[in-house]
From TrEMBL:
One of its GO terms (cellular component) is cytosol. Residues 197-323 form the Alcohol dehydrogenase-like C-terminal domain. It catalyses: a secondary alcohol + NAD(+) = a ketone + NADH + H(+); a primary alcohol + NAD(+) = an aldehyde + NADH + H(+); S-(hydroxymethyl)glutathione + NADP(+) = S-formylglutathione + NADPH + H(+); S-(hydroxymethyl)glutathione + NAD(+) = S-formylglutathione + NADH + H(+). PROSITE patterns: ADH_ZINC. It comes from Oleiphilus messinensis. It comes from the Bacteria. One of its GO terms (molecular function) is S-(hydroxymethyl)glutathione dehydrogenase (NAD+) activity. NCBIfam families: adh_III_F_hyde. Belongs to the zinc-containing alcohol dehydrogenase family. Class-III subfamily. The lineage of its organism: Bacteria, Pseudomonadati, Pseudomonadota, Gammaproteobacteria, Oceanospirillales. This is S-(hydroxymethyl)glutathione dehydrogenase. InterPro entries: ADH-like_C, ADH-like_N, ADH_3, ADH_Zn_CS, GroES-like_sf, NAD(P)-bd_dom_sf. GO terms for biological process: formaldehyde catabolic process. CDD domains: alcohol_DH_class_III. It is an enzyme of class 1 (oxidoreductase).
Amino acid sequence: MKTRAAVAWEAGKPLTIEEIDVAEPKAGEVMVRMVATGVCHTDAYTLSGDDPEGIFPSVLGHEGGGVVEAVGPGVTSVAVGDHVIPLYTPECGKCKFCLSGKTNLCQAIRATQGQGLMPDGSSRFSKNGKPIFHYMGTSTFAEYTVLPEIAVAKINKAAPLDKVCLLGCGITTGIGAVLNTAKVEPGATVAVFGLGGIGLSVIQGAVLAKASRIIAVDINTEKFEMAKLLGATDFVNPSEYSDPIQNVIVDLTDGGVDYSFECVGNTNLMRSALECCHKGWGESVIIGVAGSGQEISTRPFQLVTGRVWRGTAFGGVKGRTQLPDYVEQYMRGDIKVDEMVTHTMGLDKINDAFDLMHEGKSIRSVIIY
Ligand code: NAD
Ligand code: AHE
Ligand code: ZN
Ligand code: ZN
């Protein structure tokens, strides 16, 4: 059948909206009609050409919400009509990683996912007979997309898909990084570098964890208002200081914060985030994704003296078993999502969403199909 999609034909070029072919789901796969999708900075990162796994032409997008339209042979865990959130971190429940109890990084289909293919090694998208690649196993910038059954989380049908789509990446990642990865304890001090959809969600997580002080750091001071609304207590613009920002934060906090989070994807800032942590116990979590060839560095002494460097993907959240409860927390009013939607638009205006992000004017744009 045909579907409308935003196609990334090559790196650094705007997406083009067109009709492409999408094949029926095969065994163990589902077709989902997307209702809405957020645009995350990772989509822009891959489109920029910096992602070593970026493949073109492809259908980007990984922050969606939709309805199951069809299921392939053998699919038992979801049915036509179910409301689902696509999972770029699937959960098979059977692989070494799923069974470890130590990580959410299911590896059952990671190899083909990284090649832009379905688990059987082929693509369901094409145009004029030529394949178009999938992205992150989700490709939510197509009205109809095909996903492996293990890469969808079934959620409460009462939840508005044009809001909870943001739980498919940004909000869950930020909150999960605090609660699952860092395990921030009540009374702890926190610094958040970068106040986009991810950093603001880290602030939400820090509030849920009852942090005593939440220092919001961004070079775009317009982001401070939303950070304050969500519960940040201190606001720091690195451009206003001549000293390295880690020194400024160490001075502000009697020796450094208990936890810091890098939510930008800037390797210099990752160093600052580590080095603003308290000697002996401070922990820094890398969430931002950095381009091909970029590396982090610090003096090993920083780690010898007790600071810890960690990273997180999707906030350590296991999609099929844990994401439905994030939706319930939103429904109860415990997680804020609506506030993060600063812009909505149709698929034909998706390039505006990328522009707004790059201009620092949006928190999240949501594309409504
Ligand atoms: P965004 O573009 O919405 O926000 C980035 C923020 O960083 C902006 O407010 C910007 O002003 C700020 N910033 C830029 N340079 C800065 C600097 N030098 N110092 C301080 N602030 C600076 O992006 P987002 O969607 O929130 O994503 C943030 C990062 O997280 C990206 O790298 C994205 O790829 C990554 N990400 C990772 C995961 C994961 O699972 N690890 C999930 C989602 C997103
Ligand atoms: N292909 C990229 C990987 C980028 C990356 O780390 N992605 C995160 C999710 S970002 C969502 O906005 C992730 O899940 N990582 C774990 C994984 O297995 O990809 C690169 O830089 O190589
Ligand atoms: Zn994302
Ligand atoms: Zn698994």
